[in-house]
């Protein structure tokens, strides 16, 4: 399957076609086709993951590229020719040293031996004999397969012009790149998509576009799988846009209601803003890397200093704009909460676990570009880290003022995506992917739990006015929601605790890491406190107190509760996939860092110890501080809603600053006002009127004035030049000719005697003139 992994996205793509073609004529109106296709894709994803786990790693960086076909990438040939400097120690770093894998500082100190001189003047190194006696480093062997698409010929100008120019042929390919990162996403996407398909058979049962809904769920799954398997950046763009189109269709599923269609358009247009950055970034990398879209080539050249730092910085900044729109980063996050207008299963699949992490995946896939372009190692601040940390806190604050439980979860998603972006910004690559992994389970559980609550309360998401006291009526939904909530809040030992702690440790604020990102650490700790607090608020309103709705709620059926149980279980135990080496005096080397070893790349195409990349150790004190922040948020919020913090009641009405802060949050930082009223409204209103006035008064005035001037000039030329001068001259010549002709006509009488007399007179006159002249 590693070599034929293209089959996995092809199956749900085929499902999309079949559902549209025959879905309405099948007993389940299409859902059986979609469920069967995604189930097969999930099984194949598990097979692929099993093959990846059982795969033997390479012992040297050159043989690690043996599974990259030569027609797909230049990297295998160049590495074999010694064109790239290859670090001997793998990744090393404290995390590796603690776990005993991929080498460490001791191996690095043991020495290097020179193999070949690379093109750039560096040194290709291999483990020295002393290091060979210890555990040898292991390198990741990505499986890259591709087919030729088309060729593009370009001309490089020679010294004497085009005559001696060299014609270069660039081969464009399509294919797949399979490694730990892509295998991880294959499993996550297909599993959650399968659970959402099953859940939807109950949730949207009887919907007016039931078949259409399942068709687009299949297409979205295929598009996301295509994106994560992309072999080059052109394919990534195609997958990126396909998931956007599917998101547009599913958000606007109930397009007859204007808020739904408006939300779909808002999501589509906001993402187009970031897509400008994506296109510019990809084009810049194409030329910076020597006219190649191949991801492996781009990463290798970026990692080995063959692309200028300026181009890497420009590319990274442009691609961050794409991340801000697709992954809901501040200030382009405004579309994501409004996207909750779509069906709740769509929110769980697209806007919590898969599509919104496309930006995270793209940064992780092209990480050498960001790591070196933003100078992440040894730094204390960079654009990616700032965007992520600001999003984490500001998104969390907005969760406090929402009545709609789905909107709370949407802002929670914005905040958690900020954690992932900040993690990548500080150099904690594995922590970001690990949090993506755990977040997919507990956030999908929470979204589907909110859908279960809405299903029971006759499709109302207003937790403040229409819910309350549901823990006894809906015990299964309550239990699964609580697990998802506690995991999101980072409560030990649930999954969210482990992944969030790795991100905090990766900031380097309290331990050795890639830099000292104190600002990021403080922002994320505040966001962790807020996360626990606003999620406690949702638990109180939904499950405690008295029921405030107008109907009789009931527990959901098994097609809803069973997916919830599966996701809650994964949200509880997924964190054990990447345990630290030591914790509380316990030696966990035998089970430690399993996620890291299977997912994180090791090779010449990914930052290693030689480039300053390292792994942070588990910090017990930091874990206690983070846990205390989460616990404090839960306790304070619980006391507030149970009336034990009466001093805080009515704070917004008593303190001007508190009232101003609440107003700011209720208006969502006025960003929607800025975009809708100022930018869009200004474009449609004052700017449009000003443009119209300029067109009518200035442009049309200039054109009309030029026309009137031309007409007047034409009339003057006609009357003064044409009639008076030209026609006058012609008429004068005609009159003179006519007069001369009249005189000559009088001489031409036709009498021979008269002609002879005139001839004689002329001859005599001529003779007289000659005599006078000669005689004189």
Summarize the structure.
The protein has 776 residues and is mainly alpha-helical. The chain has helices spanning 7-22, 31-54, 75-80, 93-99, 105-109, 129-132, 180-203, 210-228, 233-251, 258-288, 295-303, 309-326, 335-338, 344-353, 358-365, 367-373, 383-398, 405-425, 429-456, 463-466, 475-488, 495-506, 518-543, 558-573, 594-599, 620-641, 651-654, 656-666, 671-684, 686-747, 752-775; strands spanning 112-114, 125-127, 143-158, 161-178, 582-583, 586-587. It has three domains: 7-145, no CATH class; 252-600 and 619-649, no CATH class; 687-775.
Q: Work out the strand percent.
A: 5-15%
Q: Indicate the mean pLDDT.
A: 85
What sort of overall outline do the alpha carbons produce when their principal axes are compared? elongated
Radius of gyration: 38 Å
Domain count, please report it: 3
The number of helical segments is 31
Structural class of the secondary elements?
A: mainly alpha
What is the oligomeric state here?
single chain
User: What proportion of the residues is helical, as a percent range?
Assistant: 55-70%
Instruction: Quote the distance from N terminus to C terminus.
Output: 126 Å
Physical arrangement of strands within the biggest beta sheet: 1-2
Extended strand count: 6
Low-confidence spans: pLDDT under 50, at least 5 residues?
88-134
Major sheet description = 2 strands, antiparallel
């Amino acid at each position: 399957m590693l070599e034929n992994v293209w089959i996995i996205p092809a199956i749900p793509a085929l499902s999309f076609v079949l559902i549209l073609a025959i879905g309405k004529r099948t007993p389940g109106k299409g859902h059986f086709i979609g469920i069967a296709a995604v189930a097969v894709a999930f099984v194949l994803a598990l097979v692929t993951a099993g093959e990846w786990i059982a795969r033997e790693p390479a012992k040297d960086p050159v043989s690690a590229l043996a599974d990259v076909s030569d027609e797909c990438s230049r990297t295998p040939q160049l590495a074999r020719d010694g064109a790239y400097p290859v670090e001997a120690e793998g990744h090393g770093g404290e995390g590796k040293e603690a776990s005993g894998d991929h080498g460490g500082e001791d191996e690095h100190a043991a020495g290097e031996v020179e193999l070949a001189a690379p093109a750039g003047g560096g040194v290709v190194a291999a483990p020295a004999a002393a290091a060979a006696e210890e555990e040898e480093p292991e390198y990741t062997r990505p499986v890259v397969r591709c087919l030729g698409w088309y060729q593009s010929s370009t001309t490089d100008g020679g010294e004497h012009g085009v005559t001696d120019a060299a014609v270069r042929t660039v081969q464009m390919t399509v294919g797949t790149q399979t490694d730990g990162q892509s295998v991880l996403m294959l499993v996550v996407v297909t599993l959650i998509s399968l659970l959402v398909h099953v859940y939807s058979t109950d949730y949207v049962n009887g919907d007016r576009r039931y078949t259409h809904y399942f068709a687009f769920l299949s297409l979205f799954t295929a598009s996301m799988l295509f994106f994560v398997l992309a072999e080059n950046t052109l394919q990534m763009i195609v997958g990126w846009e396909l998931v956007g189109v599917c998101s547009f269709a599913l958000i606007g599923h109930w397009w007859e209601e204007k808020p739904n269609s408006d939300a779909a358009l808002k999501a589509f247009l906001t993402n187009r803003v970031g897509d400008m950055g994506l296109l510019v970034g990809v084009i810049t990398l194409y030329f910076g890397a020597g006219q190649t879209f191949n991801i492996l080539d781009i990463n290798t050249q970026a990692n080995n200093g063959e692309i200028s730092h300026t181009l890497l910085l420009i590319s990274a900044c442009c691609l961050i704009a794409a991340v801000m729109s697709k992954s809901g980063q501040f200030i382009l996050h405004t579309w994501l909460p409004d996207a909750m207008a779509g069906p709740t299963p769509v929110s769980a699949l697209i806007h919590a676990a898969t599509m919104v992490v496309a930006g995270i995946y793209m940064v992780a896939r092209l990480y050498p570009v960001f790591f070196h372009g933003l100078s992440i190692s040894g730094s204390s601040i960079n654009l990616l880290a700032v965007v992520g940390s600001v999003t984490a806190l500001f998104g969390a604050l907005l969760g406090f003022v929402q009545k709609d439980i789905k909107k709370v979860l949407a802002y929670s998603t914005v905040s958690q995506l900020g954690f992932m972006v900040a993690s990548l910004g500080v150099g904690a690559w594995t922590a970001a992917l690990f949090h993506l992994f755990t977040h997919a389970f507990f956030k999908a559980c929470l979204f589907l739990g909110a859908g279960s609550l809405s299903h029971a309360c006759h499709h109302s998401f207003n937790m403040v006015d229409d819910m309350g006291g549901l823990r006894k009526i809906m015990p299964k939904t309550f239990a699964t929601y609580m697990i998802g909530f506690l995991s999101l809040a980072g409560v030990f030992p649930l999954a969210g605790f482990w992944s969030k702690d790795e991100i905090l440790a990766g900031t380097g604020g309290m331990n050795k890491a890639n830099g000292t990102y104190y600002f990021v650490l403080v922002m994320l700790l505040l966001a962790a406190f807020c996360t626990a607090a606003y999620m406690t608020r949702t638990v109180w309103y939904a499950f405690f107190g008295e029921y405030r709705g107008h109907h009789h709620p009931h527990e959901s059926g098994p097609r809803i509760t069973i997916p919830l149980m599966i996701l809650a279980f994964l949200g509880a135990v997924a964190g054990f996939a990447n345990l630290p080496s030591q914790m509380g005096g316990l030696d966990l080397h035998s089970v430690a860092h399993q996620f890291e070893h299977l997912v994180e790349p090791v090779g010449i195409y990914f930052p290693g110890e030689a480039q300053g990349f390292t792994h942070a150790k588990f910090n017990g004190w930091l874990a206690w501080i983070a846990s205390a922040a989460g616990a404090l948020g839960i306790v304070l919020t619980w006391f507030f809603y149970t009336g034990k913090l009466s001093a805080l009641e009515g704070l917004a009405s008593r303190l001007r600053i508190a009232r101003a802060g609440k107003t700011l949050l209720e208006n969502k930082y006025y960003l929607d006002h800025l975009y809708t009223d100022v930018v869009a409204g200004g474009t449609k209103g004052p700017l449009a009127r000003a443009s119209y006035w300029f067109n009518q008064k200035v442009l049309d005035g200039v054109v009309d004035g030029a026309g009137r001037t031309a007409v007047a000039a034409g009339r003057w030329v006609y009357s003064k030049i044409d009639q008076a001068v030209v026609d006058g001259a012609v008429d004068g010549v005609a009159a003179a000719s006519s007069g001369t002709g009249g005189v000559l006509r009088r001489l031409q009488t036709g009498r021979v005697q008269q002609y002879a007399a005139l001839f004689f007179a002329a001859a005599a006159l001529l003779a007289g003139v000659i005599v006078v002249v000669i005689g004189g």
